[in-house]
Design brief:
The radius of gyration is 20 Å and the shape is globular. By secondary structure, the protein is mainly β. The chain has a domain of 204 residues: Beta Barrel (Lipocalin), CATH 2.40.128.630.
């Protein structure tokens, strides 16, 4: 993709190795560890009959999850013909600054989701966003001043526009750009914006990359439109690759879950699989541990809690699968939504469905045991909830609402 080769881009997103993380921060896609785990949450002794609304503001359309650092919340959304980056005071809901730029509306099947889907990321005093048309922006997190804005004039985007959230490791930003059957995975130096390396291959999916370390070597795990693969952190060479081709009307939207040298992945319409990555001499090989064809997700990325995977299936039901052998623990009979997110809050799990229900349940491998259920929106929800202390921030079709658990 020539635009990404020729134009130097300085991208600054969450850098775990150099940034102090507060226990309640949610500074990037799927949280501090990119694994859906909430830190610093304490469940109440008894759950209330309803959540208390603290404030609610209209912010525009979009499926991107807000991010939280300290007392500032950053959100990428769409208002009218513009994509807008907002900085909001998390205590009051007051807008602190905004930045906007015009973007052509999504067309075709994607038109029903016109706003950004990629979660912003905050690092070193900067906030970075990735818009639906592939525009990368880096702003000063304090003032909203544009540091750089990388256009995509050739409009090389996936079939249903962008959905990937960038990854930062050791001062390098990784992003999967391009279009169907013609992708580039780029590694960009945060300080200079110079490209360290480019991998040319499969087009991007709607999943996001993660980091995996095997025998001291960093693997950048990438879910492409057709494969699950690892790229060498230092030079972008393929270390290993396994097929992950979606069937029927499935698309690679679920991000792989990494646990040590094991990876659990789903979303292809063929259930859930577990693989192990091991080093043999100078090479890395993969071994399939198990394959469960009984249950799988379509849009939801499961979480791992005490040896069990919990998520929402393509049949719109909560489920539990053993991570050790792939056996199904249970599939709940209640129909919820396949567009659902799930967070691991320690002793409890929270599921947020696109139908506007927030479910609170135990990570019980024997049966679905619901603790509480709250109606938090009358409109569709596709973003993760941000849970900080006893506060829950929820982005729905048009609004951002802060609820208090008390």
């Amino acid at each position: 993709m020539k635009n990404y080769r020729k134009i130097e881009v300085s991208m600054a997103v969450f850098l775990m190795s150099t940034v102090i993380i507060f226990s309640q921060d949610w500074p990037q896609f799927r949280g501090p560890g990119r694994d859906g785990k909430v830190t610093g949450f304490k469940a109440p002794a008894s759950w209330p009959a309803a959540l208390t609304q603290d404030w609610k503001i209209t912010v525009g359309t979009g499926d991107a999850t807000p991010v939280l650092t300290g007392n500032r919340m950053y959100l990428h959304t769409r208002q009218g013909g513009d994509e807008v980056i907002l900085c909001i005071d998390a205590s009051s809901g007051k807008e602190l600054w905004r930045n906007s730029y015009p973007v052509t509306a999504a067309t075709g099947p994607a038109a029903s989701h016109p706003g950004p889907r990629s979660t912003p990321a905050v690092s070193n005093g900067k906030v970075v966003t990735f818009g639906i048309s592939g525009i990368l922006s880096c702003l000063d997190a304090s003032t909203g001043k544009v540091i750089w804005r990388k256009e995509n004039p050739s409009n090389e985007i996936p079939q249903f526009y962008t959905g990937m959230s960038p990854l930062i490791v050791d001062g390098i930003c990784f992003a999967h750009v391009g279009t169907k059957d013609k992708g580039q995975f780029i590694a960009v130096d945060l300080g200079s914006g110079k490209e360290k390396w480019i991998w040319n291959g499969d087009g991007p999916s709607y999943a996001s990359p993660s980091l995996m370390t095997i025998a001291g070597q960093k693997h950048i795990i990438v879910q492409t439109e057709k494969n699950l693969l690892a790229l060498n952190f230092t030079d972008g060479k393929v270390l290993w690759q396994v097929p992950a081709v979606p069937s029927q009307r499935f698309y690679n939207c679920s991000s792989p879950y990494i646990d040590g040298n094991k990876i659990y992945f789903t979303g292809q319409g063929t259930g859930i699989k577990g693989i192990e990555v091991v080093r043999q001499g100078d090479q890395f090989i993969t071994k399939e541990l198990w394959s469960n064809t009984e249950v799988g997700a379509k849009w939801n990325t499961p979480v791992l809690v005490k040896g069990y995977l919990f998520g929402f299936s393509d049949q719109k039901r909560a489920f539990c699968v053993s991570a050790s052998d792939g056996r199904t623990g249970w599939i709940d009979n209640t129909v919820n939504s396949d567009f659902s997110t799930i967070n691991d809050c320690g002793n409890i799990l929270t599921g947020l469905t696109s139908t506007g229900n927030m479910l609170v349940f135990n990570p019980d491998p024997k049966a679905y045991t619901e603790i509480a259920k709250y109606k938090v929106s009358e409109t569709a929800i596709y973003a993760f909830p941000v849970i900080a202390g006893n506060a829950v921030y929820i982005k729905d079709a048009e609004s951002l609402t802060k609820y208090i658990i008390k």
